[in-house]
């Protein structure tokens, strides 16, 4: 058992596979880790509009949103990705963050906000400041939070970022209201862009659509969607450089899929989903990268709302925070054979076994014994379908166009941890150059 910071009943119990099946008990996860009182995130406890929009709008219309994201990737590529002829050191984490931030902004807030430098900066910086604030507070006892919170520069930056978000979101709301007024007067006005935020405005309660809450929620969505996906994309590249024998294998797959159904750029509207689902080896590689580098090493996390006793006699008091030891579980030899070997074709081999198996073992599918990187159960990551496609779009383009390797004397950067969250050493770099195709 690992006792975390301050809060009275903050016990994190590390369950092993024998003691609990998360699907058979009812837990409700709270956002307590983010120190909501001091990060202005208390509204997340009463309202899940940010989850509803992903389940009810993004998921059913995924092909269309993926296509919009792909077009924004085209635009960002020319701005964010250097085109060196010779080996050049690059901050690959920064590049992937920019590309993913643009794609997220396009689907959540639309054009021209996805090109707004102020918004792109907020969408990257807010997560860092929110996590920094929460992690520092978690090191101090609850009684001192009032004082410590006043001393944290990251908390003041967060507040400034929310103010900027309010300007950006506020002007989008005003434009939408103005369009509605003009339509009522019988003027011809273009349809509003079908963004995820517009769905939230149409479907939120009075409280949920208030400017401050909507703007903060957009920041929360950047926190959930950008660093996770960008880190994972960078991790795939770091793992490829550590195991360069897989470069030709993945390139061959991409080239075969492109020859068979057209490259990413040639996909017809809504074709991205079909295209990326054909990249089965890349999907398998991504799963192995996530198994070694999950964004969170204790998850899923839930809070017991009432006391209960599990089948094996373990008693859980109401208020206990429960966490599954996902990293440990995914490296248990009884669950994953030879778990410490990086074997990127594990799930690919399983998919080839039979037509039934072919539909299973995919990166976006959560599975208690295979894939906990996106959480589990009805509170599993609602953005995972989008995330997996984003990673594959970016990686396929990188592999098609560039070669990568570690700088002289460097190797795969070790993951760093802040409590249960993991991230890549920010100073890690890669060398890249344009691919010379004979
Ligand atoms: C590779 C990228 C990503 C990874 C590894 C990841 C992982 C996770 C994990 C582990 C959880 C907690 C699930 C649980 O407790 O069972 C989660 C929650 C969440 N994720 Fe993701 N995620 C990624 C990308 C995204 C994207 C792109 C979006 C949005 C489009 C998103 C939106 C969310 C939201 C809103 C939640 C909170 C769900 C809730 O409170 O019920 N994530 N994610």
Automatic annotation (TrEMBL):
Keywords: Heme, Iron, Metal-binding, Monooxygenase, Oxidoreductase. InterPro entries: Cyt_P450 (IPR001128), Cyt_P450_E_grp-IV (IPR002403), Cyt_P450_sf (IPR036396). It holds the Pfam family p450. Heme binds at residue 381. Coiled coil: none annotated. One of its GO terms (molecular function) is oxidoreductase activity, acting on paired donors, with incorporation or reduction of molecular oxygen. Signal peptide: none annotated. Its cofactor is heme. Belongs to the cytochrome P450 family. This is Cytochrome P450.
């Amino acid at each position: 058992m690992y006792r975390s910071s301050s809060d009275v009943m903050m016990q994190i119990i590390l369950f092993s596979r024998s003691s609990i099946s998360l699907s058979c008990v009812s837990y409700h996860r709270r956002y307590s880790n983010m120190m909501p009182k001091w990060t202005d995130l208390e509204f997340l406890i009463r309202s899940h509009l940010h989850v509803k929009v992903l389940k009810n709008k993004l998921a059913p219309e995924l092909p269309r949103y993926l296509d919009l994201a792909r077009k924004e990737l085209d635009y960002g590529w020319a701005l964010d990705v250097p085109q060196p002829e010779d080996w050049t050191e690059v901050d690959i984490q920064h590049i992937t963050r920019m590309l993913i931030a643009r794609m997220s902004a396009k689907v959540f807030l639309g054009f021209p906000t996805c090109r707004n430098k102020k918004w792109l900066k907020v969408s990257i910086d807010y997560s860092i400041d929110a996590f920094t604030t929460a992690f520092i507070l978690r090191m101090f006892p609850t009684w001192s939070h009032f004082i410590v919170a006043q001393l944290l520069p990251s908390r003041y930056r967060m507040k400034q970022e929310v103010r900027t978000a309010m300007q950006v979101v506020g002007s989008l709301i005003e434009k939408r209201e103005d369009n509605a007024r003009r339509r009522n007067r019988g003027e011809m006005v273009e349809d509003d862009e079908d963004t995820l935020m517009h769905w939230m405005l149409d479907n939120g309660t009075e409280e949920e659509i208030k400017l401050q809450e909507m703007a903060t929620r957009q920041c929360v969505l950047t926190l959930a969607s950008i660093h996770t996906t960008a880190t994972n994309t960078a991790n795939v590249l770091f793992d490829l450089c550590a195991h360069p024998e897989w470069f030709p294998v993945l390139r061959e797959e991409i080239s075969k899929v492109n020859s068979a159904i057209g490259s990413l750029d040639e996909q017809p509207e809504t074709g991205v989903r079909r295209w990326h689902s054909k990249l089965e080896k890349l999907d398998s590689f991504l799963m192995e990268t996530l198994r070694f580098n999950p964004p969170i090493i204790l998850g899923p996390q839930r809070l017991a709302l009432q006391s209960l006793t599990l089948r094996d006699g373990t008693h859980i008091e109401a208020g206990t925070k429960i966490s599954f030891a996902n990293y440990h579980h995914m490296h248990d030899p009884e669950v994953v054979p030879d778990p410490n070997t990086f074997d990127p074709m594990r799930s690919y081999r399983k998919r080839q076994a039979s037509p039934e198996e072919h539909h299973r073992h995919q990166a976006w599918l959560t599975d208690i014994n295979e894939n906990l990187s996106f959480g589990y159960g009805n509170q599993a990551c609602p953005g995972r379908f989008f995330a997996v496609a984003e990673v594959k779009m970016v990686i396929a383009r990188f592999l098609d166009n560039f070669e990568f390797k570690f700088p002289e004397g460097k190797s795969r950067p070790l993951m760093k941890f802040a409590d249960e969250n993991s991230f890549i050493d920010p100073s890690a770099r890669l060398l890249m150059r344009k691919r010379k195709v004979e």
